[in-house]
Structure formats: C-alpha cells, structure tokens
Amino acid sequence: MKTFSVLEEISEAVVKGESETKVKELTQRAVDEGYQVREILDNGFIMSLNVIGEQWKKGEALISEVLRAAERMHAGMDVIRKLIIKSGIKPIGKVVIGTVEGDVHSVGKSLVAMILGSFGFEVHDIGVDVSPEKFLEIVKSQKPDLLAMSALLTITMPAMA
Amino acid sequence: MGKCMMRLLSDEDVRKIRVEAIKTLEDVGVKVSHDEAKKMLKKSGATVDHHTDLVLIPRKLTEECLKRVPQKVILGARDLDKDIILEPDNERVYNRSISGGEYYIDLNNGKYRKAVFSDVKDWARLVDGMEGIDICTMPYYSDASLNMSARDVRGLEILLENTSKHIELQPYGKQNVEYMIKMGIVERGSEEEFKRRPRFTLMVSPVSPLHYHANSIDIMLLAGEYGIPIELTPMPIAGAGGPVTLAGNALSMIAEFLAGVVICESAYPGSPLIFAARPVVMNMSTGGVIEASIEVAMLSSAATQVAREGFGWRSDMYSLVADSPVADGQSMIERSFNCIFCAFTGADILSGWGCLETARTLDIVQLAIDSEIAGMTSRALKGIELNDETLGLDAMRRVGAGVGKTYLTDKHTLKYCRTEYFKPKIFIYSKRNTWELEGGKDLYERAKERVKLILREHIPTPLDETVVKELRLISEEAEREIKEISTA
User: Fold this and answer.
1) Do B487 and A153 touch (CB under 8 A)?
2) Beta strands B211-212; B230-232: pairing state
3) What are phi and psi of B280, to 5 degrees?
4) DSSP code at position B439
5) Which residue in B34, B138, B175, B284 has the most chain A C-beta atoms within 10 A of its own C-beta, making it the best mutation to test that interface?
6) CB half-sphere exposure, B70, CA atoms < 13 A
7) pLDDT: is B326 or A46 the higher one?
8) Chain B contacts of A154, Cβ < 8 Å?
9) What beta strand segments (E) does B250-334 contain?
10) Predicted ipTM?
11) Which of A135, B143, B230, B384 has the fewest CB neighbours in a 10 Å radius?
C-alpha cells in the first residue's frame, strides 16, 4: 500500500479540488507533523500549482478547475498565514489590479488576480470602473511592483493611456 | 404548406423556463444602478435596496409588464413600402449584418486591419445593393482624427445617406442617442413620423449576471420616450456570467431580458422590444469565449423557442456567425449550423452577416457568401407546398409512363421551374474541367468579384441635399460636444 507524505496529500487535494475543509485539515496536520513553512509552501502548494499548470497546458484541466485549485490553495495558506509572516517569507511582488473607468467587466480581471495570488503575489484588487486618478492614488500609497489594468469594451481601452 | 421547424424543448420545458425566469427576478433579483429607475420600480411594487442596487421584482409586476410588450414591431426603412413589420408568423425571415467589430478584412489586398471611416460607406452601399439582407449595421472604425466617442453618431450619418434599409446601431451613451434622434427626425421630416416609423433600432446590453447599469438604462429610457425599438442583448458567458449548463444558460438569458422588459415597460408601456440574447460560452481551455459552437447554436434555438412560445416576443439571433478568424471551411460550417438552428426555430431576424473571429472582425466578402446561406435557409423555411396542383397529378397523367416521355416541356414544368428552386449567385455547379477553364476560382474569390460588382454598379438612392447638409451639421456638433463616454 502506497503511503503519501502529508505534503503530497495536500498537493493532490488541491489539484483534485477536494473540500476546503480537507485542505485546511491536511495543512494543519503538516504543521503538527513538524514540517517547516517553506517546505509546506514549496512541496505542498507550489507543487500543486505546477501540476495543475501542466495539466492546463496540455488541455487536461479546464479554467474552472484551475481556479478551484487556486481557491483551495488560498484556503490552505490561510491556515499558515501567521507562520508565513513570522518566517519572513515575502510575496514575489505586489500587484494592483482593476478594470478601467467606464468598464464594469470583471471576469478576466478576477481570473488574473486569483492566479497571480496563487503564485505568491500580493494582490490588491481595486474593483471596476476605476478612474485614472484612483489608480494613481492607489499606486502612490501601495507602491506595487506591477499595475494591471483590465478592459473589455474597445471604447474604454484608451483609458489605459 | 409544411414548415421547417426545430424544437429542442418540449412544451413543458418552455413553461418551466418561463416560470423560473419570473421567479429569478423575485428571488435572485436584478441590480439596477440607476436612481430614477429604482424609484420607478419601487413605486410599481418592487423591493429596492438603495445601497446595493438590488431590486426584487414581484411576479405581479413582471406579468403586468409582459402584457405591455408589443407582439408587432415596425422597423422603418427610408421608404414606407420597404418598412419591416415584425409580427407573429411573419411571411418571411429578415436578415441583418454584424455589428460591433473593430477589425476588417481589406477588400483589395485581403489584409487584416482595423476598420477605418471609409469602410462604413462601402459597407452601407454593399448592404444596400445586396439582395436578401434587410438591416444595415456598421463597422466600428478607428480614426485618430475623429472623436471616437462620437463614432456611432458619425456612422449613422453615413448609413442614412448610403442605405435605404433599416439601420441598427450600438450607441455609446444618452448624449449620443440624443444626436441620433435629431438625425432621425431630420431624415423623417417630423418627430411624429420618426416615432411612427422608427428609422433605426438600438442595441443595449445588461452586464451578466443580472445587472443593468446607469448608461444602459439612460439609453433604454430615452429610446422608450421616442418609441425606438430596442434589441436587449443579454450575453451571460456560460460558466462565468451565467450557468455553464445549456438549460441554465437559456434560463439566464431569458431572465436578464425579462428584467429589461420590466424596466422598459414600467417606464413606457408598449415599448417595442426585441429579444436579442447572444449565447456565449466560456472556452474552458483558454478563458476566452466561443460564439459559434454547436452548443451556442442549440442555446440560440432554445432561447428563441422560449421567446416565441413562452412569451410572444420578437427575436433577433446571431445566426451567420463564426469563431474562425478567417472565412474558411470552419467559418462556413459554424455559420451554417447556427443559421439553421435559429431560423428553423422561428427567429424573426437572422443576424451576423459578415461576422468572423467571434464578432471581432467584419469581412465584406463573407457577407456576400452569407447571402447564399441565408438564401438557402429562406428557401427551406418556405417548405414544400403540397396540393393537387403541386403534386403534378395532371402533369403525370399528361406525360404518362415509359422511357422517352419527358416533363421538360410540359406546362407544369414551365410554370414552376423558376419559382420552386433557390438560385444561388455565387455557388457553381460545374464539372472540374469547366471550373478550371473559367479560372479555377474558389468560393471566396467568386464572392469577392460579386462584392466588387455591386460596389461598382449599385448607386444608393440619394437623400435630399438639404437633409444631407442638416445631418452633417448635427454630426459635426456631436463630434465637438461629445466628451468622455462612461459605459458603466
């Protein structure tokens, strides 16, 4: 009988989209078994993203399944949030994302926000119909590494300039 | 006479969707981001949360508004005898070109480029001169020297001058519509005549799921005041803006249209509305969208069926559509399936002529090919007329039996040989060697020649010079006065 390590179990649960409760339980178990935060992140969560990312590239995983995996990952990371901060691990970068003024479409933006968040970015989603002035204000106060602007309607694209 | 009809849903299915759509407005509600509309709905009995904009619409109000939707809608052409009257059991199906795309396939060099201002005139002239198409739209052109926020108004000026057919546009905002109404009144000669025979229809969209924004409602109310027909176009992306299942997505399209019905008919009872939902499916492999798959065809059919049988609404469905970025075999297959599904379920208007790349690109040559597909469809819809005369009972007795007897010169053949069969203008029925001798041109090449011929020879009936001058003045004022457009 094959025995998985709890980290492999976390990865499998995230990829397969098992319940949030299960992912959280497994994460807590990993902490209780003495795994370091770095190990849990790399061999549990980041591993799962690599697996589902590969599956998506091959056309085996669908968008909704990728997003579900991202949601499960967030749930698991919530369990070790305090430990992450304590250990000094920093996010890859900070992103501010919003849909530009005059446009209220949000699906694409939410997709990108979730995936960036799953990969270790700190994401500030400032919503829809965001004026250039508001973007500027948030950029000044948050000082992100990346500013992501979304537009669906062709007439609103000039707002990005 | 028999009729080709497709019914994917049973009577019970149609009833169920109707009931659930009405319940959706009661239980899930709709977001209405417009102060005046919220007040109006509250006064009419809806529950309104002014902080979240969520409006729960009671069944009683919905059913009252449904009674006000006219079953007959007039789409005015320049001349009275060319007006389109949409009503239950139309004599024929109507056709419309694609709207909204910003890219264009250049007629001369075949290159993919952004649409430019001069394309609008060519497009209008071709639609005006092409048989089988009844409603003209426009490419959404880019031109750095013009006010892009006023391009719908400027475009209307060109359309009014270059086609006598009914026009349809996607307006950017209330201010734009005000200028369009001015143009319409000038063209008609009086406000009364403009209201009686609307020269154009406007397209308005909610944002899914179930949200009507201020800009859209402004346009809906202004159109209602002038009796301008509105095509409400819910587009819940299956799996993102609406349920992923076909049944669920059909329901969400109907529910979103229904919410628009309540808003329009509460404000202006009798507002002419056309069901114009656009089924769209999320491409679960890429995150993009799909508008011409077999499931989209099925969704169009189901939605049309509910619109007709469940509510008695007039409908305009995207039929001649393609996800393919080029006018290739995939495009022809996609649009043929979609056209048949929509037409055979009884859509009043078949839209999309010239569409490529999921409605991002306009191809004027594809439009000419669509004329053939639509022509074939119209012929199929006429069905088979069956009576003693058409059965040819007398003819069979005249001609008799045995080799050597022929129907070729019988009076029955001569009477019916022209009218029984649709005659395509671009398809060929040659043998290979004949085809090669004639230049070996494929469908696209032959369609291109037809487009060039029409553009060379067809001269649209000109408008009165005074009218042209007045339209120009209005267009120039719009160009100056229209500033930022918020479509939120």
Assistant:
1) yes
2) unpaired
3) -140, 145
4) T
5) B284
6) 17
7) B326
8) 102, 140
9) 273-275, 280-282, 289-290, 314-318
10) 0.77
11) B384
Distance CA B31, CA B207 (A): 10
| CB neighbours of residue A95 within 10 Å | 21
CA–CA separation, A109 vs A114, rounded Å? 9
Which residue ranges form the domains of chain A, and what is each CATH number?
6-87 (1.10.1240.10), 94-160 (3.40.50.280)
CB B52 within 8 A of CB B31: yes
Closest chain A C-alpha to B479 CA, distance in angstroms: 15
Residue given tokens 């391009």 in the structure block: B151
The predicted-structure confidence for B118-145, as pLDDT tens digits, reads as follows 999 999 999 999 999 999 999 999 998 9
3-state helix, strand, coil in chain A (%, to 5): 60, 10, 30
What does residue A17 show for φ and ψ, rounded to 5 degrees?
A: 75, 40
> CB–CB of B203/B172 below 8 Å?
no
Cβ <8 Å between B488 and A111: no
Find the closest chain A residue to B140 by CA distance.
Answer: A154
Cα torsion through B56, B61, B63, B67, rounded to 10: -140
pLDDT given for residue A156 in this prediction: 66
Greatest Cα pair distance in chain B: 85
What does the alpha-carbon distance between residue B25 and residue B46 come to, in Å, rounded to a whole number? 10
Only one residue has tokens 């320049």, namely: B78
User: Residue range B383-412: average pLDDT?
Assistant: 94
- Say if residues B375 and B92 touch (Cβ distance below 8 Å): no
> Would you state the structure tokens that stand for residue A6, as one six-digit string?
């709890």
Report the residue count for chain B: 488
What is the spatial distance between Cα B23 and Cα B14, in angstroms, rounded to a whole number? 14
Q: What is the dihedral of CA B216, B221, B223, B225, to 10 degrees?
A: -170
Give the pTM. 0.91
Q: Give the mean pLDDT of chain A.
A: 87
Cβ atoms of B323 and B329 closer than 8 Å: no
β-sheet bridge partners, residue B279: none
Q: How many Cβ pairs closer than 8 A exist between chain A and B? A: 47
Q: Report the side by side order of strands in the sheet with B289-290.
A: B237-238, B280-282, B289-290
Best residue in B99, B138, B146, B207 to probe A by mutation, most A CBs within 10 Å? B207
Place of tokens 């920093």: A90
Between CA B38 and CA B35 the distance in angstroms is: 5
Domain segments of chain B as ranges: 68-383+475-481
Strand duo B211-212 + B94-97: pairing = unpaired
CA-based nearest residue to B198, from B261, B260, B135: B135
CA distance B307 to B340: 17
First to last CA, chain B: 49
Averaged pLDDT, B349-367: 96
Angle at B22 between CA B19 and CA B24, to 5 degrees: 105
What is the CATH T-level fold of the domain B68-383+475-481, as seen in this structure? TIM Barrel (3.20.20)
- CB–CB of B355/B369 below 8 Å? no
